Amino acid sequence: MPRPRLVTALVVTVALTVLLGGCNAARDQFSGPPVDEDGVPISRLVIDALGEALPDAVDVTPRSGLDGFAYRMKMTVTWPDEQALDADHVAAGARAICEHLAGYDYVDYGFFRSGEGRRVDLTELWPSAFPGVGFLDGTTVTFVEEDCTAILD
Q1: Any idea what the Cα angle at residue 72 is, between residues 70 and 78, rounded to 5°?
Q2: CB count, 10 Å around CB of 74?
Q3: pTM, to two decimals
Q4: CA-angle at 39, arms to 27 and 151, nearest 5°
Q5: Which of 43, 46, 47, 22 is nearest to 34 (CA)?
Q6: For every one of its 153 residues, what pLDDT tens digit does the chain have, with 9 covering 90 and above?
């Protein structure tokens, strides 16, 4: 009987469409990484914005991809050893990311000391800039699009 199978397939298709419809990752499975209205990848915009916001940065290392059903961006800023890193720098970078985060479900953000070869501990810097915003795991801050409202204020 082909009819019950057809109906089942349609029901499953509709259920998955409804379930995954609001998920950035599901959309990107079909359309590729998020881009702006001019077709420029969002990750490129974030890299450029971080370069402008943090001109002393040595490098910005991007990574992005699917994490389950979420589309995740990871941005690591390489910071020179001779330059002090403070909460203002951390905040400027977070604001630059948030200005262009459209299409991603969340971002992991951190700093790396170029000469020391280690990640920077953000346990004091992040709460100084944005108390109660995002999830801080020592050297990495994870925040979602909704956190950007507080970050951009």
Answers
A1: 170
A2: 18
A3: 0.78
A4: 70
A5: 43
A6: 457 777 777 767 766 665 555 555 555 555 667 888 888 888 899 999 999 999 999 999 999 887 777 889 999 999 999 999 999 999 999 999 999 888 888 999 999 998 888 899 999 999 999 999 999 999 999 999 899 999 998
